[in-house]
Amino acid sequence: MKRLLASRWLGVAFIVALLILWELSSAFGWVSSLSWPRISAVFRALWEISVSGELFGELWPSLWRMFAGYFIGVAFGVLIGLLMGSFRTIYSLLEPVTEVLRPIPSPAYVPIAILFLGIDDEMKIFMIAFASFFPVLLNSYSGVRSVDPVLLQTAATFGVRGTRLLWQIVLPSASPYIFTGMRISLAVALIVMVISEMVAASNGIGYFILAAQRGFKIREMFAGVVTLAIVGYALNRIFLAIENFVLAWYQGYTQQQRN
What pLDDT score was predicted for residue 132? Predict the structure, then answer.
């Protein structure tokens, strides 16, 4: 029993219990609303739009936009974060503007982005990249600043400087922080992708959910939301698998330190 309570199956059982409660609340009229269908009807609608190809036709452009913006934001976030952490002049130059722009919610930039980029994919990719940029930037900077000074002094003793120092010492040491920022940005990218598609799009999963709500297709609307939950969970699990593979050396080191 203790092993079961400490395992992942406890959380799975809780989700199943919530879904059963959802089904019963609709079936027995505990929640008397036309906007609260049975979860079985939602999954049936999800199956129907999946088999027809409608769901994947809407999901594919969304994922393309999300990953395009995400990788652009990550690339610039890592690059500028490393530069800010390595050079005091660059930090002094960019830190004020970073702290001015970072607290502003990303959806607030949507009207401005529409004015300059229109409502096509360029606007959505820009918004996703912009939102994904800051978590990676801050974590990359923190990772660089947290590098053990002993490592830097040892590298200097052996004549490791410049780009060699960056690639062989700084970047590996900062990589756990960078991956943390990338994981945060992945969730942010998914959120901004949906918001941008709801505001200005003619396709995509965000547009599909909003169009279903406006057409009072409640089952399809919930099916779209469930799809986002599944996609978000799958992306997180895939990212964790990649992180565990790339940072296997770091996890082995931390485990050894604990022992």
Answer: 95
* CA atoms of 106 and 195, how far apart (whole Å): 10
R_g over Cα of the chain = 23
Q: What is the DSSP string of 113-148?
A: HHHHHTTSHHHHHHHHHHHHHHHHHHHHHHHHHTS-
Which pTM was predicted? 0.88
DSSP string, 62-79: HHHHHHHHHHHHHHHHHH
- At 34, give phi and psi (nearest 5°): -70, -15
Give the pLDDT score at 197. Answer: 92
139, 128, 165: which is closest to 84 by C-alpha?
A: 139
Token readout for 224 is: 């779209």
Contact 112, 154 (CB under 8 A): no
What is the CA 8 to chain-centroid distance, rounded? 22
Which 3 state secondary structure label does DSSP give 90? Answer: helix
Domains of the chain with CATH codes = 58-258 (1.10.3720.10)
